[in-house]
Amino acid sequence: MLVTIETLKEAYYSIRSNFLRSLLTLLIIAIGITCLVGILTAIDAILFSMSSNFNRLGANSIAIRPAEQTISTVKSGRKSKRSENITFEQALKFKERFRTSGASVALDTWCKGNVEIKFGELKTNPTFQIRGIDENYVIASAFELERGRNFGTNETNKIIIGSEVVKFLFDDNYDKALGKTLIVDGNRYNVIGALKQKGSGSGDNADKRVYIPIDLARKLYGYEDQNINIAIAVQNPSYVDATIESAIGLMRVVRDLRPVDENDFEIKKSDSVLNTLKEMTSTLRWATVVIAMLTLLGASIGLMNIMLVSVTERTREIGVRKSLGATSNNILLQFMTEAVVICIMGGIVGILLGIGIGFLVTILIKGKFFIPWAWMLLGIVICVFVGIVAGLYPALKAARLDPIESLRYE
After folding, report:
1. Partners of residue 241 on adjacent β-strands
2. Which residue in 362, 369, 46 sits closest to 203, CA to CA?
3. From CA 151, how far away is CA 158, in angstroms rounded?
4. Residue 200, pLDDT above cutoff 70
């Protein structure tokens, strides 16, 4: 232990005596580690936030959408074409006939975006959406009512509002919002329910929406081939696959597909998009590691150059130490320790900066920050490795110096 402490002290004094050169190399290493830890931490924070949002959307929900079909053309080769929309009649027929135990079918459709909502003299920014939904949508989408009730059948001029509406118009007072009359896109609605805050995900803020009955939505915003989204909420996760099979069979009947026809619709689990994103971020992680390693490769070359210069400048010192009894292993250990210490110091600075970047990203996405212990450990391990690789050749050169020739060196 005494040898280790003395070696560390000598490494510190040597680094301090060549402060500027050591600082520049340290900063290059810090930049590489910052990229590594910062980007990986940011990716984890984004994935964690998205996972939370998808869980709140309902882990066992199934969505049915028109499929993207690839067709061949003479002029442009192959291109994608969206299948025909799911009409209200088809969606309603599916909902009426679907009888799988423990599952409920919800219908919704997009009505209009960029609308403002008025209450008396108050009004919101024109950044809100109107969606038409049925009585099962709230359950299928894993929304929770903070106050009020859900839609029933045959509702007219009723509305359920998101938390942002309550915040803008009623100062976050949910009790104050119930029963009030709002003007949305020129139409009057009576507030019967207000949803809990759900947050944003994939660029869409569910809290900045208002919901009207789907029958009313078709009268006000409907058109001939308006697409209706179908969602199926499954209570038991083990029944998801069976539910999908039943949904495919019934949807083919509803869409009047022949046995030889391919499905012109697609069914997605609520976690399928998240899994795709995880696969994409896995590639991004590897790209980040490669970029960081290339940066650290440049830093290791710079460090090796500094250590070689240091060996030349301290040739006489090495001769004195050997003449006083220092072995080649002592000299080797000394120079290796200096290289590793510089790398670790740079790594610590890089880790702190990387954590700062990850924390900033977490604040921007309003997610939950956690300390990236795995990436911190990876950063330190890489720094030690770089220090060993960069310091090995200079240390060997120093250890092999002849003490007599070293003492003669000027």
Report:
1. none
2. 46
3. 8
4. no
**What is the token pair recorded at 6?**
């003395």
272-313 and 315-323 are packed helices; what angle lies between their axes, rounded to 10 degrees? 80
CB 31 within 8 A of CB 296: no
Q: What are the pLDDT digits (tens) for 294-324?
A: 877 877 887 888 888 877 777 787 788 778 8
Average pLDDT over residues 253-268: 91
Q: How many helices (H) and strands (E) does the chain have?
A: 13, 16
- Round to whole Å and give the CA distance between 263 and 66: 9
For the chain, give the mean pLDDT.
Answer: 83
Helix, strand, or coil here: 16?
A: helix
